[in-house]
Write a structure and sequence with these properties.
three-stranded antiparallel β-sheet; about 140 residues; globular; 2 domains
Length: about 140
């Protein structure tokens, strides 16, 4: 796994985890990366300092970076699990359902589903709060 510090065209900083540099290149080329703050798909790598290991940890060789990755993985899994257990999955009807709730045509409730980057950006422009669920590499398989 590779962790990159990323920035969007509007200067928002965030990070992304990728299986390898080819995965990063592919996702950027296909505009599949999106800034969580503003939805921009114009994303670049930010300058980063290397994370140099300072020897083995007392845990038998697993470096601090692995512990951080596992903590992040656990947090992502908890967020996804919470959403899946407390919200209604509406699949590719997400943009339509989100608008109905936003414009009070339907009762307010938590939903999640599928939307393209373009659809998510259109929702944001209308004032609908939408956020991508964090994903893990194995979610892409």
């Amino acid at each position: 796994m590779i962790r990159y510090a990323l920035t969007c065209e509007n200067g928002h900083g965030f990070e992304g985890w990728f299986a390898n540099s080819a995965a990063w290149e592919s996702q950027v080329a296909e505009a599949r990366l999106e800034c969580p703050a503003c939805g921009s798909v114009r994303i670049d790598k930010a300058p980063m300092a290397p994370n140099l290991a300072k020897g083995e940890s007392k845990g038998g060789g697993a470096g601090e970076g692995n512990k951080g990755f596992e903590a992040a993985r656990e947090m992502i899994q908890k967020v996804r699990s919470h959403v899946e257990n407390t919200a209604e999955y509406v699949g590719d009807r997400f943009p339509e359902e989100a608008r109905k709730i936003h414009y009070e045509e339907e009762e307010k409730r938590g939903i999640y589903g599928e939307a393209s980057t373009e659809e998510a950006n259109e929702l944001r422009e209308e004032g609908v709060d939408v956020y991508p669920l964090p994903t893990l590499p194995e979610d892409q398989n």
